[in-house]
Amino acid sequence: MRVLFVSFFVVLIDQVAKLAVKGFSIPFINFHYTGMYEGERIRIIGNFFRLTFIENPGMAFGIDPGINFKLWITVFSLLASIGIIVYLFIIKNEKFTLRFSLALILGGAIGNLIDRLFYGIFYGYAPLFYGRVVDFLDVNFFHFTLFGKTFNRWPIFNLADTAVTIGVLILLIFNARTQEKKQDKIIDGSAAQISLESKPNDTITTS
Fold first, then answer.
1. For 138-176, what is each residue's pLDDT tens digit?
2. Helix 159-198 to helix 96-114 angle, to the nearest 10 degrees?
3. Catalytic residue chosen out of the listed positions 14, 115, 138, 161
4. What are phi and psi of 121, to 5 degrees?
5. Catalytic residue among 135, 184, 188, 202
6. Is 184 a residue of the active site?
7. Residue 164, class by beta-carbon neighbours within 10 Å (0-12 exposed, 13-18 middle, 19+ buried)?
8. How far are the Cα atoms of 37, 201, 202, 203 from residue 206, in angstroms, in the given order?
9. Percent of the chain at pLDDT above 70?
């Protein structure tokens, strides 16, 4: 299951980036890294691409589902991650494209799951399962309205979100191509069958 290294790499870079943004301490070696303060912005490409540190309360687009529903989001993410791991073992002999896309989705799901599971305890602001997701990638794509709320920039996201999005896109493209190939085979098979049925039978003549 070497494809799981893709998931591991996604989790690793996602968590390293989040710790670099949020900051962290290692008390037993007296090490403290400050990171960014919440709401801080650092321009990378003018106003188009910035690093903006926020903490997501639980769902995409910064929607706060409430403390009770937040627990179910974390539990669902945990179960979904386990389900993907099991499914990857089941399809270990399938095409790499399918397994790669699922590995990206798995890595992204685990990356954000770590925030929800452990960050509340690690940073001392919430119990297990109630942590907030660290977001920091701030891109100005276009303006849009969602759930009655108007966004002047694309909602701030993280590397785990990026991995999930890329994985889903690859999965959709892979499935579309697979369906096209199946349809082509059906059409070719039907055409061959029609050709055989329309071909006149050979007759044997004797003198």
1. 999 777 776 677 777 888 999 999 999 999 999 999 877
2. 160
3. 161
4. -75, -45
5. 135
6. no
7. buried
8. 98, 16, 13, 10
9. 79
